[in-house]
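ARCHIVE RECORD
Type: protein–small molecule complex
Small molecule: zinc ion
Source of inputs: curated submission
Record status: active
Notes field left blank by submitter.
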Amino acid sequence: MLEEQSISGTAAINETMRNSLVPKKLEIFVWRAVQRRIPTRMELDKRGIDLHSTRCTLCDDDHESVDHTLIFCKYAFDLWVRVFSWWGLGNVSDLSINEILRGNNSGSMTTLGKKIWQAIEWVCTYLIWNNRNYKVFRGKSWSIPVAFNEVQVKSFEWISHRLKGKKLDWLSWLNDPSVYLSLT
Ligand SMILES: [Zn+2]
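STRUCTURE (tokenized, with ligand):
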């Protein structure tokens, strides 16, 4: 059942895998995440790489699948809660990573608003993976406030440079970004 859902989710997401508001490296990362081609311990194990454990390298509470690492690991989840709350949106808990990356989860809005929210979700996902790698390979501590600030700064920087003919305002970006969901 889960397998079927993820296959149909992948087929649906292939149509919306482009987002001109983020750097190319994010599009590539997102594509790999949807295909389950990022090297979490579970994915390495499936490909026959001999690991002593497939448990999450951060929390050890579950196996290190793509969904666990990018959403349900407590380190990622606390960050998602903050990001959703920052945009005045509901709960992240019922979503899969494919649903998050598709970016359809903020209710009705304009095409541009939807694209902006999808970009936020892609930036957050990308930074979660980067922070996971910094912690695993360099022993860097994981700070939710620092990661959250990084999502706010990087998303502003990347999106504002790519929004043709529109401007984002830094203070409203920080304090009430939901106004951008209705941007046309
Ligand atoms: Zn974990």
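CURATOR ANNOTATION: Residues 132 and 138 are 10 Å apart (CA to CA).
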